[in-house]
Q: What sequence folds into this?
């Protein structure tokens, strides 16, 4: 029996032993975009834990990595007065939805369960609107990861690259050996995921934050940004010609199969390796994206809770919020998802080596200034500015005649227009 099943069975037994009065059944409709292999296993853990408490789970999955499609569908549902109980909404968007009056306060659940003590303050702040919790964080994803197939690297005689220059040298050898150096897909958020890893490597965390959090024009419109674009162009030159329209998990599968050597992607990719039964350090390698060791681009998944009319469904919604932060869910879910628990008091000894490395880097980078929010995943800036950055970056990827100076001008103009 795998660990997921074992823990779920244990949860089922303890739920069965609860007095019947503790269960007031309701329905929770949950919007998310977790449809890839590892993501779906992780989402199933939440569904099962809710069902074990007697509630009904109404799955509202909208496929599409990064969640752009899901957000479009959510807007339509909310505007028509029929929002789900919970929706995967992240970062500054939580504030936007709360400001519009759609969200409900979770303060009673938060107080009863000591959320302020459990959740790191930088994350708790994002979950609160005017001092009240309106969302609950699920996990912490590290975005600046490199995933690699060790057999493929070995056959080409290359080591895991730790800098951009090492990456280019390795990529040349891999190409000569007939493998695709970098697996990548064809969506704007995937381009932005690689772009922000390169930006962090070139700029360092301080200037990264000045550009992508504070939107300081001196840093955005600078020779340093031109360098980010020229390095990004070099990295992307090692992607095969068929990337257009490819999903991120298809790119991960290329690394798993050995058709490609590496992928720069957040640790939801680890969910794919885990779902395939693979072991880190043996079957695949996780390493910081080249040039970003010790630094940590964070992406926190969270569920915002919508105001509901029905009392039983509101109770079920509260149970959902409480369950998400319980240690048992944090363990089962994050093992499947590839992320680390959002609670920093968790025992990490039964997590894999990549998760342990991630938790160490999360804690140390928070102390030394290397912890920065991911703009590719909505944690650094508004969705308007994020959309503008995506457009510039993706246009750059899809243009044959790549001009870093022109792209830098476009980036500055685009961000200015959305501020
Ligand atoms: C991110 C999300 C992750 C993962 C990824 C790919 O934005 O935070 O949980 O699902 O998209 O779908």
A:
């Amino acid at each position: 029996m795998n660990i997921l099943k074992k823990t779920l069975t244990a949860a089922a037994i303890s739920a069965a032993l609860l007095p019947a009065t503790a269960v007031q059944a309701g329905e929770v409709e949950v919007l998310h975009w977790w449809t890839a292999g590892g993501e779906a296993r992780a989402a199933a853990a939440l569904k099962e834990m809710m069902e074990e408490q007697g509630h009904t789970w109404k799955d509202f999955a909208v496929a599409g990595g990064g969640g752009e499609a899901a957000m479009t569908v959510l807007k339509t549902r909310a505007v028509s007065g029929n929002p789900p109980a919970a929706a995967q909404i992240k970062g500054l968007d939580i504030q936007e939805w709360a400001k519009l009056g759609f969200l409900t306060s979770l303060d009673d659940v938060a107080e009863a369960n000591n959320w302020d003590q459990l959740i790191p303050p930088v994350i708790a702040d994002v979950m609160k609107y005017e001092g009240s919790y309106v969302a609950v964080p699920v996990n912490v994803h590290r975005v600046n990861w490199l995933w690699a197939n060790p057999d493929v690297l070995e056959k080409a005689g290359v080591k895991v690259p730790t800098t951009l220059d090492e990456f280019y040298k390795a990529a040349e050898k891999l190409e000569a050996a007939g493998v695709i150096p970098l697996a990548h897909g064809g969506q704007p958020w995937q381009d932005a995921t690689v772009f922000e890893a390169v930006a962090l490597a070139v700029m360092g965390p301080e200037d990264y934050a000045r550009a992508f959090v504070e939107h300081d024009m001196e840093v955005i419109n600078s020779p340093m940004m031109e360098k980010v674009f020229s390095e990004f162009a070099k990295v992307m030159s090692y992607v095969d010609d068929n990337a257009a329209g490819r999903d991120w998990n298809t790119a991960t599968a290329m690394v798993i199969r050995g058709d490609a050597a590496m992928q720069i992607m957040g640790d939801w990719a680890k969910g794919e390796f885990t779902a395939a039964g693979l072991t880190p350090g043996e079957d695949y390698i996780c390493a910081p994206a080249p040039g970003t060791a010790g630094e940590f681009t964070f992406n926190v998944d969270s569920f915002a809770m919508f105001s509901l009319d029905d009392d039983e469904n509101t109770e079920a919604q509260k149970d959902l919020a409480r369950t998400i932060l319980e240690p048992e869910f944090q363990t089962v879910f994050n093992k499947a998802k590839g992320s680390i628990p959002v609670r920093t008091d968790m025992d990490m000894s039964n997590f894999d080596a990549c998760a342990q490395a991630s938790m160490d880097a999360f804690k140390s980078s928070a102390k030394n200034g290397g912890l920065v929010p991911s703009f590719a995943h909505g944690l650094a800036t508004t969705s308007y500015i994020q959309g503008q950055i995506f457009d510039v970056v993706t246009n750059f990827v899809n243009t044959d005649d790549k001009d870093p100076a022109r792209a830098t001008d476009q980036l500055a103009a685009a961000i200015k227009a959305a501020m």
